[in-house]
Amino acid sequence: MDAVRVALLREALAGTEWLRDTRRFAGTLRGSVGAHGGGLLLVGTADYEPWHLAAHLDDEAAWSGLAELSPTLVRHRPPPGAPAHLSVGLGRLEAAGRGETLLVVAEGRTGEGLLERVHDARRGGATVLALDGTAGGGPAAAARTDLCALAHDALAVPDAAGLDLDTVQHLVSAAAGENGPLPGARGRRFRDRLSRLVDQLSAPPHRW
Fold first, then answer.
1. Is the whole-model pTM more than 0.85?
2. pLDDT digits over 131-175, tens only?
3. Could you give the CA distance from residue 43 to residue 129 in angstroms, rounded to a whole number?
4. Minimal CA–CA distance to 108: which of 130, 131, 129, 134?
5. CA distance 191 to 44
6. Which helix (H) or strand (E) holds 106?
7. 19, exposed or middle or buried, with CB in 10 Å at 0-12, 13-18, 19+?
8. How far apart are alpha carbons 120 and 118 in whole angstroms?
9. To the nearest 5 percent, what fractions of the chain are helix, strand and coil?
10. β-strand 153-156 against 40-43: which pairing, if any?
């Protein structure tokens, strides 16, 4: 991991407005899955699968004692013969309903097919959250507007934020697992967990 990204994380942890927005969004995620005892679905776009967010949410679920944070990764084109936890296709979104939380991570064009499925999931009663790293204008900006309009809560990464989508995903996952019920110990403060977060950024996922 390069020093620039470490510096960006340190700046983000310094109490900026961006950090507050990130933690607010993470709190919404945590509250939604906690209220319903889980049911977290995670989906990206046809060109961007949020592998690292899936892995780090899984880590946070284990570390914090909040099993509800462990997601089901929904894929656009799961390959034949993939393990069960990597074989969930978009049809799963059509079955999403009340008590489930759908977290959409978008980088680039979302695509009408995904937006329609997200709309159906919301209409079925699922809580829809959006983490949008789409930059620029044109069709991509229009897709960002449509996705954020569908979501109950959305966090859009502005061009001027100085943070890339991968870094924001790490901040969101870490904040979502903050202060979980740890056996025999209190949850650690967000800043105290920086070293573990830095290790996560460079470590390969162990389940995904």
1. no
2. 988 655 555 555 566 888 899 999 988 666 567 788 888 888 888
3. 11
4. 134
5. 28
6. strand 101-106
7. middle
8. 5
9. 50, 15, 35
10. unpaired
